[in-house]
């Protein structure tokens, strides 16, 4: 019986696969090393589940001569026949190895992917569990077109790398989970600062940014009238009208405060892109206004009134960093600039406007804003000039 020397692959994995920059590079190195050692691999896939609000997991597929392709699977896939009839589900639920000798005429094609693989010339298919230290099971599948399929020696060699592969995959998955959670709960830029070690209370820095502060009108009344499930669904749909426009234009969502949203569009330290940041924030505001209006039209029958919101845009310096007590911290921004944005947002409701901007913001925008006058705002000694969208009159 032939034997296969793959000790170098095992040693490389035990050492942490440090030369592989990305997860797909790990799979590429393994497959190329196996092929060099004489394995008749045609297709290898690794499925790793993840902790993400939108993505169930990621699939890495290596094909002979094509390299590695990466795809994300959403949670919607869990409700499809393809998932329910998949080898991935079987291995994850049982922890057992599954093998199908596709070249045999009596081989059962009892899982969704098998007929397609056989039609492409596959002769043997093996799915093996990748077990993390917390007991969660992920999957690696091996496919060949070689006549007669895999030999026992080849199967033993593939099985021998599963434990070291699991350790490397788990480390990479945990790292990615950490990034996902930070991106989800504090935002990408704040997450990068936290990962860089800026986690001590009071660790803040002054940054210049365009500030976005928005609030839904009449939320208290809605919360008293609507069932909790309906209210949460409305809030999620309402924030879906704002978050994508902000993120698509380089903004950073910092905080949801009930029905309120705080975001920033950072400015470079030299201030050279101040106008660009303000223009992007204003463009996002117009986009969000249109989306909220469309949502309001859809939900008006349920709400019994038009869904409205107010949005303040301001440009100024904020303290950006860790604030809190004990071992519970919040990564956010504070300062007089944020306070002014909050006052302007309240003024928007009084003036019947959707979007209001400060003078410092307006002077960095080429067009689209018109002066509305100067107003006394609580906490500020002098009257503050505010500006509104030129295409927007007072709301009814």
Structural descriptors:
14 strands, alpha+beta, elongated, 396 residues, 14 helices, 8-stranded mixed beta sheet, 40% helix, Beta-Lactamase, Alpha-Beta Plaits, 6-stranded antiparallel beta sheet
Overall structural domain count:
2
CATH level-two architecture of the largest domain: 2-Layer Sandwich
Share of helical residues = 25-40%
Strand content: 25-35%
What's this, in brief?
With 396 residues, the chain is of the alpha+beta class.
Task: Set out the fold topology.
Blueprint (H helix, E strand, L loop, with lengths): L6 H8 L8 H14 L4 E9 L5 E9 L3 E8 L6 H4 L2 H8 L3 E3 L13 H6 L4 E8 L5 E8 L7 H9 L1 H24 L2 H8 L8 E13 L2 H7 L2 H13 L2 H6 L3 E6 L2 E7 L7 H30 L5 E17 L2 E7 L1 H16 L3 E4 H4 L6 E7 L8 E6 L7
Parallel strand pairs: 10-12
Antiparallel strand pairs: 1-2, 1-6, 2-3, 4-5, 5-6, 7-9, 7-10, 8-9, 10-11, 12-14, 13-14
Helix pairs in contact: 7-8
């Amino acid at each position: 019986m032939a034997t296969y020397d793959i000790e170098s692959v095992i040693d490389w994995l035990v050492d942490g696969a440090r030369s592989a920059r990305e997860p797909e590079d790990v799979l590429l190195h393994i497959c190329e090393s196996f092929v060099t050692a004489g394995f008749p691999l045609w297709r290898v896939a690794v499925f790793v589940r993840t902790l993400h609000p939108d993505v169930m997991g990621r699939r890495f597929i290596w094909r002979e001569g094509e390299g590695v392709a990466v795809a994300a699977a959403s949670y919607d896939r869990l409700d499809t026949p393809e998932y329910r009839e998949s080898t991935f589900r079987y291995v994850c639920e049982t922890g057992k190895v599954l093998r199908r000798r596709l070249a045999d005429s009596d081989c059962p094609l009892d899982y969704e992917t098998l007929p397609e693989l056989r039609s492409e010339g596959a002769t043997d298919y093996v799915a093996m569990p990748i077990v993390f230290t917390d007991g969660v099971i992920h999957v690696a599948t091996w496919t060949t077109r070689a006549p007669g399929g895999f030999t026992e020696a080849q199967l033993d060699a593939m099985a021998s790398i599963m434990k070291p592969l699991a350790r490397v995959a788990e480390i990479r998955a945990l790292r990615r989970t950490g990034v996902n959670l930070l991106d989800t709960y504090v935002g990408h830029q704040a997450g990068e600062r936290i990962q860089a070690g800026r986690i001590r209370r009071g660790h803040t820095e002054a940054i210049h940014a365009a500030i976005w502060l928005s609030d839904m009108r009449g939320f208290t009344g809605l919360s008293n009238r609507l069932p909790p499930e309906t209210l949460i669904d409305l809030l999620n749909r309402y924030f879906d009208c704002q978050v994508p426009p902000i993120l698509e234009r380089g903004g950073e969502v910092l905080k949801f405060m009930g029905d309120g949203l705080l975001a920033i569009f950072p400015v470079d330290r030299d201030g050279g892109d101040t106008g660009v940041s303000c223009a992007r924030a204003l463009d996002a505001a117009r986009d969000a206004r249109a989306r909220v209006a469309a949502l309001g039209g859809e939900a008006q029958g349920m709400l019994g009134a038009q869904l409205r919101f107010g949005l303040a845009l301001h440009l100024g310096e904020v303290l950006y960093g860790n604030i809190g007590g004990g071992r519970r911290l919040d990564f956010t921004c504070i300062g007089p600039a944020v306070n002014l944005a909050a006052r302007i947002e309240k003024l928007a409701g009084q003036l019947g406007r959707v979007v209001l901007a400060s003078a410092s913001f307006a002077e960095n925008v080429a067009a689209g804003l018109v002066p509305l006058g100067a107003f006394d705002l609580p906490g500020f000694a002098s009257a503050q000039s505010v500006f509104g969208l030129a295409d927007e009159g007072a709301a009814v």
